[in-house]
UniProtKB/TrEMBL annotation:
Pfam families: DUF3786. This is DUF3786 domain-containing protein. It comes from Laedolimicola ammoniilytica. Residues 14-184 form the DUF3786 domain.
């Protein structure tokens, strides 16, 4: 799975990749460096090996991002996954499934607990029409917004994931879904760590 993705980027100039993706190329060390969810990721070229070693899906998305990035400015306008170029079926289904997953994830958590979990993944908080809006820097030009509405007497807590309108310039529909899944799994890992600390 990773081999074809590595082959795809091996033909590209690391300098060019860095310019288009927002990564930094350290020519002397032969390393591309970027931030992903509060983590500095170093990728040795031309082998395209990762340090630290990330889960395969996370590596795959980063490799696709490096290959596809075209340097388009990041739009602050948000869209659902269904709003992506090829998102009508796959993206709309993912939006629906993710709402259910987030409802389960948010159940019984205090706003303070949710903030701490998001902050551990490097989220910044933004003003929005939701009770809480966390912006995750999944990749340099690929932010993900998590909007949360806290529980009240009538409704359970709910959440929705959004992408930038410029997302199609950096990843395919399938990769966008993987980004959402990786982010959710990281939130759950942080949740466990938070539980273990309390």
């Amino acid at each position: 799975m990773l081999r074809p993705a590595k082959e795809q980027v091996k033909h590209l100039s690391p300098d060019n990749i860095a310019q288009r993706s927002g990564a930094i190329f350290h020519e002397r060390d032969g390393v591309l460096e970027l931030q992903s969810l509060n983590q500095t990721v170093r990728i040795a070229v031309p082998e395209y090996t990762f340090s630290p070693r990330l889960e395969e899906w996370h590596q795959l998305v980063i490799l696709h991002y490096l290959a596809l990035a075209d340097g388009t400015a990041v739009s602050t306008q948000v869209i659902t996954f269904g709003g992506l170029k090829d998102g009508l079926i796959r993206g709309t289904k993912f939006d629906h499934d993710m709402e259910k997953e987030l409802q389960r994830f948010l159940k019984g958590k205090t706003p303070d607990c949710i903030r701490k979990i998001c902050k551990a993944l490097g989220a910044e908080f933004a003003d929005s029409n939701a009770d809480l809006c966390a912006v995750f820097h999944f990749l340099p030009n690929y932010p993900v917004w998590l909007k949360i509405w806290f529980a009240d007497e009538e409704f359970e807590a709910s959440g929705k994931l959004y992408l930038s309108r410029s997302a199609d310039h950096y990843l395919s529909m399938e990769d966008a879904v993987t980004v959402g899944e990786v982010l959710l799994s990281k939130l759950k890992i942080q949740e466990q760590e938070h539980v273990n600390l309390t």
